[in-house]
Structure formats: structure tokens, C-alpha cells
Write a structure and sequence with these properties.
- With 133 residues, the chain is mainly α.
- Helices cover 34% and strands 5% of the residues.
- The protein contains five helices and two strands, in the order ββααααα.
- Strands 1-2 form a two-stranded antiparallel sheet.
- A hairpin with an 8-residue loop joins strand 1 and strand 2.
- The two termini are 27 Å apart.
């Protein structure tokens, strides 16, 4: 289903009938240098970014943009993450990073999220630079 001005449509796998949710939030311009600091402080303990990097507590993020959730080889995802079918892009990451457990209920990601829009935008700018295939 295509919804103008959105990049995310989620089938609710826990609902008796297919329910579709479209989420969209305005994304401020990000600063990759600030995003690098956020990544090191909040993400690096669980994720790597380099091509061929290992999976840790979380999956390697290289090639993240344009990839479908739950598809990094060798990483054991939660059923919820594998079945979410999210295509990762700026908007989906922006919405997800605010509260991962709300965005994908029953995900095993323990990260509480980044509540500030600017922090999420900065992190996304950095991830785009560092994970591009």
C-alpha cells in the first residue's frame, strides 16, 4: 500500500484482521558529527557499522538504508522484528528510534529510544554516511 508522504506501513501481526498504520513525523536536518557522538555513547555497545562487521547484541548496521527489518544474515531477531517487514529509511528510522518497543511491539531491542527529534536526525545523518553500501 502506498501512502503519499510516508515511507512506513506496518501490518499488525498481532491483530485478528490486517491493520495498517502509517506513521510520519517531520525530520529536522541532522548533523553527522553530532550523530557520531550519539552513536558512540548510545549505540556502539550493541551495533557495528562497517562492511562485514560482526553482529553484537544487535545486528551489524552496514547497508541499513533500503534493507528490510529482520534480514541481517547470522543475527537472531525477534519474531516481531522479522515479521514487521519495515523498509528502513530516514522516516522509518526517525519514528523507530523515538521508541523502538512501541514501534515494533515485542522487539528484543532494549534501547529506550531518543526522545529529541534533533538527536534522532543527527544519528540518522551519521548512519547514512557510515552504513552506505
Amino acid at each position: 500500500v502506498f501512502l503519499p508522504h510516508t515511507q512506513f506501513v506496518l501490518d499488525c501481526s498481532f491483530c485478528p484482521t490486517t491493520t495498517r498504520y502509517a506513521i510520519m513525523s517531520a525530520i529536522p536536518e541532522g548533523n553527522s558529527a553530532t550523530g557520531a557522538k550519539i552513536f558512540k555513547a548510545r549505540c556502539a555497545q550493541c551495533h557495528t557499522l562497517n562492511n562485514g562487521g560482526p553482529n553484537k547484541q544487535g545486528p551489524n548496521l552496514y547497508g541499513l538504508f533500503g534493507r528490510t527489518s529482520g534480514t541481517v544474515p547470522g543475527y537472531t531477531y525477534s519474531r516481531a522484528n522479522k515479521e514487521a517487514g519495515i523498509l528502513w529509511g530516514d522516516q522509518t528510522l526517525f519514528d523507530y528510534l523515538e521508541n523502538p518497543k512501541k514501534y515494533i511491539p515485542k522487539t528484543k531491542m532494549i534501547f529506550a529510544g531518543l526522545k529529541k527529534d534533533k538527536e534522532r536526525a543527527d544519528l540518522i545523518a551519521y548512519l547514512k554516511e557510515e552504513t552506505s553500501a
